[in-house]
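Input set for joint prediction.
Command: fold jointly, output tokens.
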Amino acid sequence: MSENTASKAAAAIDRAKAEGRAALIGYLPAGYPDVQASIDAGIALARNGADLIEIGIPYSDPVMDGPVIQAATTEAIANGFRVASVFDVVAGITAVTDAAVLVMTYWNPVMRMGVDEFSRRLAEAGGAGLITPDLIPDEAAEWIEASDKYGLDRVFLVAPSSTPERLEMTVKASRGFVYAVSIMGITGTRQAVSGSAEKLVADTHAAGAERVCVGLGVSTPEHVREIAAYADGVIVGSALVAAVRDGGVDAVGKLTKDLSAGLRREPAQA
Amino acid sequence: MDAPTSKPEQNAADAFLQGGASLRNASGPYFGSYGGRWMPESLIAALDEVQDTFEKAKADPEFIAQLNDLNKNYSGRPSLLTEAKRFSQHAGGARIFLKREDLNHTGSHKINNVLGQALLAKRMGKTRVIAETGAGQHGVASATAAALLGLECVVYMGAEDCRRQALNVARMQLLGATVVPVTNGSQTLKDAINDALRDWVTNVENTHYLLGTAAGAHPFPAMVRFFHEVIGEEARAQILEQTGKLPDAVCACIGGGSNAIGLFHAFLDDSSVKIYGFEAGGDGVETGRHAAAITLGRPGVLHGARSYLMQDEDGQTVESHSISAGLDYPSVGPEHSYLADIGRVSCTPTSPISAASATNPSRTPKRWTRSGSCAALKASCPPSSLPTPWPAPSRWASALPKARQTPRRSRSS
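tokens >
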């Protein structure tokens, strides 16, 4: 993994590790249902046990997202969400919490604003870095340069289908942590966590990654407990978005508290 | 028809050609600064497998023989090159030839690519193919090839397109395919591709994504072109046989651009042959409701490739508009973006509404933008002034369906 002592995401994961547990990473879309509500929901996430927060930029063509997130981001755009508002959301959360805040975005909105300008504004807002679901390191020269310049984390994804060569290459290009997708598929709640996730985490660690977090289809405290046993962090998305949809900020806080109960490894390590 | 104005880069293309370098057989992943693989990591292994299988098949005489046999004895190739004498007369005397891809089995050029990719799917041991379709031509071709080769077939089609192309939905179902109406976004081709990609990433183990246009992530643009090159190769031999010389110009409609790249490819290195691409002008480029990605878009990434893209100032894809379901796509194949940039292909938006208007200088026959299976070759460019308006405005105006009334944001593209 690229060296950077200032990685905010790595620091947040390491703080959790020091407490003998995996980190909890919660996803929420910016601007859903509006900008202020998404800030409030992000703060509720942080205050109820999330160590890192992933703020998604609503995008017109979210090919990695299932129905829950698609519906939320489509509504955010229909409500007038503008991409630059994501910096307000990040700043609004980092101003009052210690959580590391990453932005999850499909690549075209970043390219449209300009990779350097986007990176500069994200850093100014206190953001930790970017999670890039449709940008692979092979195409990321411009982002690697900008993220080095502004000290931002680069979270690339690895999948059960990734070859050993690609795992190694992706691990080298990443900073903060590596995002392991638990299953071949798109976001959304599932009954059980795929068995391929544990092997992928082990392979990614073996490829040199210090921190590997697992996402996709993780929605219950039981899922969190299962993954926390072998991964450095657990990422929950659609379930939290459904909580915003059905119960607003209070429901997000309650679900986060429930999810975080599953984090502690047994037996606890100091 | 007015001759489309050439881009200032035309000189660059001429210089390129005079330098002896070839524009043919570009292998990707990049065409200039376009193309690439802007895709989720989950799909990279599948793209590598497709690329590897394609490269090996291309070099395998047995595969080529199998493909040629299907083209001849199943699709009915070579397709005819027909001189449109009355149209030529009407248009002022230039000899105009139509490359009749509509005469292929299933009624469009789409079968060329579909047979090639379906054979590759079999080679990869896949049992299921998925496809997106706009007008339904690619869906019908995919359903046909799947039935021929014993593959399960699922076709994603925008709900709006299902409605306006209901006959093709029935054909696909008759052939045993499952048609999934897509209700996201603009409910057209781009949204069908989104859902097909979601299916592919979930079922990639047993499924090949039979992408229908020369767009998407590498190797699709170069691979789809390869399977359509037969259009241009035939056309070039046929025009030489019928007229004894190369045409002054070739032209084709461009949505994603598979028919166009298939035709253009044979002529890319013939510097005397002008090449024109016509994009869907929709309600008129000034309205913002069109599908003229090259003419009015700016480079961006969608569906795996960097190319010209209709997008707003936030990088959100702008919904495209064309009464032709087959041209209703907000981006374009990356090789077309490159060929337009270097000036080898001149791209012009053409609008069915404005073409019918006496006050508008564009007189491109609206039929080119209306047909999902656009005739792919006009071997000689019509002159810049027409003796009579063609076709008669009143007749066409009454035949035009009402524009879709979908609420949308109106930001600049």
